[in-house]
Design brief:
Chain lengths: ~110, ~120
């Protein structure tokens, strides 16, 4: 069935270090893989997305990589800052809807 | 980042009571969605609508109902059949129906609790 596994569930890093969150999905027909960030008490917001015709996409300190053969994709945040602390959700498209991962709570220690 | 408004922010439900959560968007988006968020479980899709007067069940539709009488409105009713309704409910919209490779715009959410 439709499923995406997201790891780790919590991640604590020192300010300035990198953070990596990984997701594995089940639908081989998926072509769109977004990442959403949800700060405490706020709505989720799209931070980056990738489509299946590329293997990597960068936007300043964040990047996403996609391996369609292995059906996994990852979010990379470099030079982490305290304002990066939030819950991050991966997602993929399946049958006209997005399937979300269970979320990763990232804490950046100053 | 307005454009999609949910109300109320907090809602309490008594045993056996139906309650309705409001979702309104002024973005002229075709598609609208309802997600339920529980701690540690991410976002689970309840219902979605791609066009006025049409909607489809998501993964956890039991105990919920929706309507889409107007393009800008997609209310969610939590019925008494939903035995564990306590959760954070998020409404979202996207520009085009039937196309999922698009950004979702989320509302600010409604926290529903059972008295």
């Amino acid at each position: 069935g439709e499923n995406v596994e997201q790891h780790p569930s919590t991640l604590s890093v020192q300010e300035g270090d990198s953070a990596v969150i990984k997701c594995t999905y089940s639908d081989s027909a998926s072509n769109y893989f977004p990442w959403y960030k949800q700060e405490l008490g706020k709505r989720p917001q799209l931070i980056i997305d990738i489509r299946s015709n590329v293997g990597e996409k960068k936007d300043q300190r964040i990047a996403v990589t996609l391996n369609k053969t292995a059906k996994h994709f990852s979010l990379h945040i470099t030079e982490t800052q305290p304002e990066d602390s939030a819950v991050y959700f991966c997602a993929y498209d399946s049958s006209y809807k997005l399937i979300f991962g269970s979320g990763t709570r990232l804490l950046v220690r100053p | 980042d307005g454009g999609i408004t949910q109300s109320p922010k907090y809602l309490f439900r008594k045993e056996g009571q139906n309650v309705t959560l409001s979702c309104e968007q002024n973005l002229n988006h075709d598609a609208m969605y309802w997600y339920r968020q529980d701690p540690g479980q991410g976002l689970r899709l309840i219902y979605y609508s791609q066009i006025v007067n049409d909607f489809q069940k998501g993964d956890i539709a039991e105990g919920y109902s929706v309507s889409r009488e107007k393009k800008e409105s997609f209310p969610l009713t939590v019925t008494s059949a939903q035995k564990n309704p306590t959760a954070f409910y998020l409404c979202a919209s996207s520009i085009e129906a039937g196309v999922t490779n698009e950004k979702l715009f989320f509302g600010s959410g409604t926290q529903l609790s059972v008295l």
